[in-house]
Each structure stands twice: as C-alpha cells, then as structure tokens.
Amino acid sequence: MSERKNIIVLYTRLPDYFFACAKYMVQTHPLNFIIIRKKPDENAPFVFENEEHIQLRDLESFSNETEVIQYCDSLSPIAMISAGWSEPAYRKVTKHFRSRIPVICGLDNFWENNWKQTLKTLFFSGVVHGMFSHIWVTGMPQYEFAKRMGYPNNKILKGYYVGSASKYAAYQHLRPSGDQPFPKSFIYFGRLVDYKFVDGLVDAFRRIDDSIKNDWKLIIVGNGPDKEKLAPFATSNIIFHDFMQPEELAEMVAQEGVYCLPSHNEHWGVALHEAACAGLPIIASDTVMAATEFLIHRYNGFRFSSQNAESLKYAIERIMTLDDRQLYEMGKKSRLLSNRITHEMWAANLLSVL
C-alpha cells in the first residue's frame, strides 16, 4: 500500500462542509490532512475532533509565525490549501511554500466589475501570485475574478465548496414520499446576520394573507447578532431554533418543505447546496451565487430580487399555490442539480494538481 502523503490546510473558521471533504479524501486516497484552524465562530460552534488521517491544530497553539512554518516544514507536505489570504500568518506560510509545492487558494469572492475590484486586480495580483500557484473557485462567478487576477485556465480549479450529499442521504427515509402530503414549511438555516436578510424573510412571511398562508410554517435555525431583534416575531407558525450540529440539522431538514436563502451579496451559500442534496425546492435571491449552480427559476424553485421583501413575498406565495405533486417534483429536480458538484469531483480537482 502506498505511503500516505501529507496535505496541509490553513483555515480561519473551519466549516463542517470542508471537514467532510477532508474525510472523503482520506477515506478514498492515501493522504493525511493536517488542518490548522482558528477557534470556532461563537455563532457556528462546529465540534470537530481528530480522526484517522485528519489532524487538527489551533493556530493559537503556536507562539509565532516562524513556529507555524517550522511545523509545516516538518510534515514535508505535497500540497497546501489556504482558505483565502486574510490571515497574516497564513500569508507568510504560503509564501514560504509557493515555489516548492502546489499552494492552492480557495476563492469565493465573485467578480462584481466595480472600481474597487479593478484596482485590487491591478495592484494586488502580483502579491497573490507570490503566495498561490492555483486558485480554487466555488463557481463561475468566482472564475472571472481568478481570470482577472491573471491566472490561466489550467491554474483555476472549480467546485471548492461542496454540500454533504451523504449526510442528507442518510435521512432520506424520513423524507415524506410522493403519496403523502408535502410538508407545509419553509426553512432557513444559517447565521442570523444582516446580509442574510432573514428579517426580510420574516417580514414577507408575516404579510402573506392568512387565506393563502393556511397552515404553512416558517422555521429559522441559527444564531447571530440579529437573533434578538427577530425573537419577538416568534409565533405558532414562525419558529426559531438555536444553532444545530450538522447531523441534528440534517435530520430536521429531511422532514421540512422548502428552503429559503434570502441573502444579498452572498458569495456562495453551501446551505443552498445541502438543501438541494436533501431534495427541497428552493427560494433564493438573485445575488446568491450558489443559485447559479443549484437553482433554475421555475424548475426547482424561484428566484426573487435581492433585498426586495415584496419580491420575496411573491415567491413564497407562488410556492404556496403549487400542489403536492408539483412540490415533490421540484424537490426531485433539486436533488438532480445537487450532483453538479460532488465530493468525488472535489477530490479529482485536488488530485489534478498533485
């Protein structure tokens, strides 16, 4: 059996979906993942532990940047992945390894074609090239950004973020079948922060006429700074839950109806991919970038105009007018679209540069 080689990952706030990618990789290929990460976000306190061939280290456990570099050197990595370039310590590490091994930068910023981004590409591209040999983008909106920074096609990978299809597949037995009433619920799961526009979602739902709303519910799962201002709107049909660990959340989502991601300026939105994996119809704003892959308007859900509560209200009402058969068909189509990015493809992209 081949000796396992080391891949180092530099992350700020490690999310569950990346940990799932690492688990898939070490289970299918002779690799070890060593993940250096900062302490979890208090609004998304994912719990991770060392697993066979996956080792976690807190960035805070190192005294200084030199110690991080020395530790990485001792591992003789064959590749390095960095989740962006915002952390100063990670910038020094990537520069140290740039000329020796593939050093890949994850990129979820999309090209907005404004003067700020244009200036960044003019004055910052050289710095980025000095740190990273490859850019791994989430989708086509980010691909344009990578091109603008001067990376050729063969140095740009796609499909950096992956929803965990296997996690949701484990609970498909809980999903009501087509001969049962479709679950009359909308669900949002994620952080409760301003740009997610959850207050707009609550407002839109509240303003729908009771004759249309009937017994539909809105379920909000997550924590964040906006929770306090949203809490007073809790009713028998607007229900709030605190942050859930991934397995618990997947079990709940499998039994719900329609997923909503109302964000404005959402760089991607892995939650939308996971909802598609679970087989839910989807509502998302036209500035949610994950919708470019996993939502086709009127096929498996509806788009609405960003930051427009009236447009969001109309999309919700359109869902409410569909019959059970139409909603189940939309859910099937979501699951079909979810296969556009998979763990197998993620692994293949990484292997292509080793």
Account of the 3D structure:
By secondary structure, this protein is α/β, with parallel strands linked by helices. The protein folds into two domains: 171 residues, Rossmann fold, CATH 3.40.50; 174 residues, Rossmann fold, CATH 3.40.50. The chain is built from 15 helices and 13 strands. Strands 3-2-1-4-5-6-7 form a seven-stranded parallel beta sheet, sandwiched between helices. Strands 10-9-8-11-12-13 form a six-stranded parallel beta sheet, sandwiched between helices. It is globular, with a radius of gyration of 21 Å. The model has no long low-confidence stretch (mean pLDDT 94).
Report the total helices. 15
What is the succession of H and E elements? EHEEHEHEHEHEHEHHEHEHEHEHEHHH
Write out the CATH superfamily name of the largest domain: Glycogen Phosphorylase B
- How far do the termini sit from each other? 18 Å
Q: Count the beta strands.
A: 13
Main sheet: strand order:
3-2-1-4-5-6-7
**Oligomeric state of this protein:** single chain
Tell the overall outline: globular
Uncertain stretches of 5 or more adjacent residues: none
Summed up, the domain count is 2
**Rg measurement, Å:** 21 Å
The major sheet is characterized as:
7 strands, parallel
Helix percent band: 25-40%
> Strand share of the residues?
15-25%
Short description:
By secondary structure, the protein is of the alpha/beta class.
Summarize the SSE layout with pairings:
Elements: E1 5-10, H1 16-28, E2 31-37, E3 54-58, H2 65-74, E4 79-82, H3 88-97, E5 103-107, H4 115-131, E6 134-137, H5 140-148, E7 156-157, H6 165-169, E8 185-189, H7 198-206, H8 210-213, E9 217-221, H9 227-230, E10 238-241, H10 246-253, E11 258-261, H11 270-278, E12 282-285, H12 291-294, E13 301-304, H13 309-320, H14 324-338, H15 343-351
Parallel strand pairs: 1-2, 1-4, 2-3, 4-5, 5-6, 6-7, 8-9, 8-11, 9-10, 11-12, 12-13
